Amino acid sequence: MADGQGPPDPQALARDWITIWQSELAALATDREMQEAWLRWVGLWADAANAAARLLPGPAAGEPAAGRAGTVAAARAAAALAASDPRDAAIERLAARVAELERRLAGGDAGTRNAGT
């Protein structure tokens, strides 16, 4: 209340406060220097995000690279090849055996299959 007879209305104060801030933000949005400062600020954040993304580990096995390309992805691929798993040899032997069986089924070894029976 303006005449000092009681507490002020909190909703009226909130409306006034919001009106003041809306006018301030509208003025900032039309200020050319502020727009340029915001563009520089967003550019800095984008650069920081790109630098942070380069520090993240690569995708897990079987996942796509999610658009990452270039030297970072190549370095990760080289590192992944260097770290071998003892099961890799068994997987390679199985893959070779499956390929051999597929060739036989395709008809390349039809005479051998019949001769053994």
Can you describe this structure?
- The structure is a single chain.
- 73% of the residues lie in helices and 0% in strands.
- By secondary structure, it is mainly alpha-helical.
- It folds into 2 domains: 68 residues, no CATH class; 33 residues.
- It has 5 helices and no strands.
Task: Give a brief description.
This protein is mostly helical and 117 residues long.
Low-confidence stretches: none
Number of helices: 5
Oligomer: single chain
Classify the beta-strand content into a percent band. under 5%
Topology as H/E string? Answer: HHHHH
Secondary-structure class? mainly alpha
* Rg value: 34 Å
Helix content: over 70%
Question: How many individual domains?
Answer: 2
How many strand segments?
Answer: 0
Largest sheet: none
Helix and strand layout, with pairings?
Elements: H1 10-30, H2 32-55, H3 71-82, H4 87-108, H5 110-115
Quickly list its features.
2 domains, mainly alpha, 117 residues, 5 helices
